[in-house]
Write a structure and sequence with these properties.
Elements lengths: L1 H26 L4 E14 L4 E12 L5 E15 L5 E2 L8 E2 L1 E14 L8 E15 L3 E14 L4 E14 L1 E3 L2 E14 L4 E15 L3 E12 L6 E14 L5
Parallel strand pairs: 1-14
Antiparallel strand pairs: 1-2, 2-3, 3-6, 4-5, 6-7, 7-8, 8-9, 9-11, 10-11, 11-12, 12-13, 13-14
Length: about 250
């Protein structure tokens, strides 16, 4: 067990070094941006099916002093059984449990730029998601997600919508009471403002959960947007997860 723990610690250390080197190397590339996305997520489970969540995220741009703040609130409902029984932690779960095949999510997000009080960026967004979870061999989990964003952008609150489809693969490794969940994902975006797929986002990262209430997540994101001022975005995302659960009545 001790050897395995040291091995996982080395993988995590090398992973962080690779992220930093890749980010620093690409920050100076033409039409590219290096960003840091710190985030805090609070999950509150009501029962095995229902869950509430609140996210607070900041975007830090290395090329300028600008900062953006995003806050989100959402509710989840999970149901159904998978073809093969799957028990384990997920990227956003604090403890092992029987996996439910389907999940529906709805929520609201508000974002604005901090230094100019929302003059350069302001957005309100309502979103809905449908998740399908498919266990594969070797205790690997495939997740398919369809998401719709309804957006009001800028001071004039111009309305538009996006369609997003994400494919994610993850696998849990257990070390004592801790859980290490590496994952990769890819997600294209269709934007009604341009009537085309203008953005694609690829992410690789890992979540480390320890105990019953805390977890950390680190990932590296590459995003290409053909309609953005900066087409190529390279971001390091550091997330603190806080897991809370409603106490069952005795």
């Amino acid at each position: 067990m001790g050897t395995r723990l040291k091995y996982l610690q080395k993988i995590r250390r090398y992973f962080l070094i690779v992220l930093l080197l890749c980010g620093l190397q690409t920050a100076n590339a033409q039409n590219s941006s290096l960003e840091f996305w710190p985030e805090t997520n609070v999950w509150y489970r009501l029962n095995p099916s229902w869950r509430l969540a609140s996210f607070v995220a900041i975007t830090k741009y290395y090329e300028s002093k600008n900062r953006d703040l995003n806050t989100s609130f959402m509710v989840d409902y999970a149901w159904g059984h998978t073809k093969n029984r799957f028990v384990g932690r997920l990227q956003d779960e604090a403890k092992s449990q029987i996996l439910k095949a389907w999940l529906i999510r709805g929520g609201y997000m508000n974002g604005f730029s901090l230094y100019d009080f929302g003059e350069s960026y302001q957005e309100d967004l309502a979103f809905s998601e449908l998740h399908k979870r498919i266990p594969l061999r070797g205790e690997v989990l495939l997740s398919l997600r369809i998401r719709t964003d309804f957006r009001w952008i800028g001071e004039n609150a111009d309305w538009s919508y996006r369609l997003r489809y994400r494919v994610m693969v993850e696998k849990e490794f257990k070390v004592g009471k801790s859980s290490y969940v590496p994952y990769v994902s890819a997600e294209p975006f269709w934007d009604s403002r341009y009537s085309l797929f203008n953005r694609i986002r690829a992410i690789t990262g890992a979540t480390l959960v320890w105990g019953k209430s805390l977890g950390t997540e680190v990932n590296f994101t590459y995003q290409f947007d053909s309609k953005a001022t900066t087409e190529n975005v390279y971001a390091i995302n550091l997330i603190l997860h806080v897991y809370l659960e409603r106490m069952a009545k005795k």
